Protein: Starch-binding associating with outer membrane
Organism: Maribacter sedimenticola
Amino acid sequence: MKNNHFKILTLSILSLVGVSSCTDLEIEETDSIISDGFQGLADPSSTVTNLYGSLAGQYAGQDNYFALQEVTSDEHLIPTRGGDWGDNGLWRVLHTHDWNGQHAFITNVFQLWNGNQLQASQVLDSRSNPSATNIGDASFIRAYSMWVILDNYGQVPFRDTSLPSTSVPEVLTGQAAVDFILADIETAIANAPATQAASGEANLRASKAAARYLKAKVLLNKHIYVGGEPNGADMAEVISLVDAITADGYALQEGYFDLFLPDADTETIWALEANTINKVVMGLHYNNTSIQGGGWNGFSTLAEFYDLFEGDAEFNELDANQEPANGQEERRGGVPTIGVPFDNQPYASELDGYVNGSNVGYGFLINQQYALDGTPLKDRQGAPLTFKREFKDGTGAVNFINNDETTGIRIQKYAARNGEASISHQIVFRYADAHLMKAEAIFRSGGDPTSMINDLRTIRNTEELLGTVTAQDILDERGRELYQEAWRRNDLIRFGQFGRDWLFKAPGTVDNDDYNVFPIPPAQLLANPNLVQNPGY
């Protein structure tokens, strides 16, 4: 990979984190009043602000949380291209499901998101004298962070801030963990402000709509954590929660790729001020972008995921009006045969390293790529820059290593042509997901959500509507709508497909549910004897 870019951007992201998290959730002195253990925060509001900054840093990168949710799925993989992206197998083992507890991203996510939980608990401690707004924010962040740990690791260490800092955190699992998280969400709903859709900056913090969305997400996945089948009462509540979000004015909106700009829209329920540049350059070729310094030429997608979308399997072109052509749906995007000037792009400027415009399309990029003036681009060896469906080594054999510069279809959701280098706005909760959660809850309750699925497909300008939908239809529609938004792993697990076979999957991990959760890092097991290593590790 391009190590110079990776290091610079990673450092910039880590600078946003704003909190160092001990492996045993040990309370560290920040703005706390310390005498005998934790005694309260002097300024809980500043800690809340720091927490949102931490979340932005944790969410912005192409590594850590994003990698665990996407690279472990059929949606993303990073083949080794010559000397690039080898990294001692760091990326490959995620896609093959051949990881262990020493993996850096698995360790980092456990530390960082548990660190969020601890700081939120400090805010919520009565000795910090939190305001109602502080309580709403901190309860929401703690619930979200604990849910991330539960969903990824199956058990959540929790430190009671009223106990001595030397005490060992208790560990919550199953129903107890779900109940704790749901109680925090109820507190957030009671204390967070009500926001209307298209509220702009108001959607950068906790709101009643964001808390209701999170509760719906927890309930939809609850049977994964506690065992058994989806509960009818839980599904009914998911439907009710989404209806309450809709009542606040949130709704599906046309213009798919416009949703990922900072402009106010009716779909953004919660976003973070997280820079989008990593999501732009991570898959682009060195010669494929007008961003100064070029792309990283790493992340790609499997052909089988690309084939979920309407359109020609080998041809993905935009027409003269920069609209999808050749029968492909809007969400699949396309490759422009000529670049787009930045005259009408408010988020792009020469200050960001752009020259005159962008030669990069939206969505999925396949086959020949073009320069701003329409000239076909070439790779660094002078061969046509054509992104390919296959992953082949120098001998022509399908292989995860020794790929050339052009293997793999690339993705641009946060897009270079929008001037993403200057944008710090990433969506975390979006109404289309809530819409699909409601449809899924109806389906799991024995109802027929076909009209809801087709409503979404219609607004996304698909050419075909579905007949009576199946579980596979719902999963596929979630893939088409929510790709690169860090939901694919969670969705595949809920639909029982995280263990299915896909290209390069390690044979011993196929149909093995042990990999539905990650291992507890060994250092955590040593620090907290209440933690137990997950089965299979």
Observations:
- Confidence is low (pLDDT under 50) at residues 1-23, 26-35, 350-355.
- DSSP finds 16 helices and 13 strands in the chain.
